[in-house]
């Protein structure tokens, strides 16, 4: 029992890189446009043009937001000719987003 108590009392400090990545992830999820894009991509793969059309956004806006999300490894892409197709790249963030949506819908 004594060993268990010690483990519970030891608080592991987060390193700077982890803190930065976590804060950037929450920053990404705090933007309504990025949330809309992620929600769409969690439903399946889409090209930049498809995302822009389905969400009624400018292609430049979509590209900018996808670059932000890609840098955080929240989305990934594949290239087919001159077209880039995006999909989600992190099941953890998918779970976090689903739980947040469920929380918001739960009255």
TrEMBL record:
Q: Name one GO molecular function term.
A: DNA-binding transcription factor activity
Q: Name one Pfam family in it.
A: HTH_5
- Origin, by domain of life? Bacteria
Classification via SUPFAM superfamilies: Winged helix' DNA-binding domain
Name of this protein: DNA-binding transcriptional ArsR family regulator
Q: Which organism is it from?
A: Falsibacillus pallidus
What sequence ranges are listed for the domain HTH arsR-type? 14-107
Taxonomic lineage is:
Bacteria, Bacillati, Bacillota, Bacilli, Bacillales
What does the UniProt keyword field contain? DNA-binding, Transcription, Transcription regulation
Q: What PROSITE patterns does this protein's entry cite?
A: HTH_ARSR_2 (PS50987)
Q: Which InterPro entries match?
A: ArsR-like_HTH, HTH_ArsR_DNA-bd_dom, Metal_resp_trans_reg, WH-like_DNA-bd_sf, WH_DNA-bd_sf
Q: Which SMART domains match?
A: HTH_ARSR
């Amino acid at each position: 029992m004594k060993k268990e108590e010690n483990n519970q009392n030891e608080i592991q400090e987060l390193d700077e890189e982890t803190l930065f990545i976590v804060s950037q992830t929450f920053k990404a999820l705090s933007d309504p446009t990025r949330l809309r894009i992620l929600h769409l991509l969690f439903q399946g793969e889409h090209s930049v043009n498809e995302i822009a059309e389905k969400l009624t956004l400018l292609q430049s806006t979509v590209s900018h937001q996808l670059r932000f999300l890609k840098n955080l490894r929240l989305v990934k892409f594949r290239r087919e000719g001159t077209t880039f197709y995006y999909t989600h790249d992190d099941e953890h963030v998918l779970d976090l987003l689903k739980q947040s949506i469920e929380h918001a819908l739960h009255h």
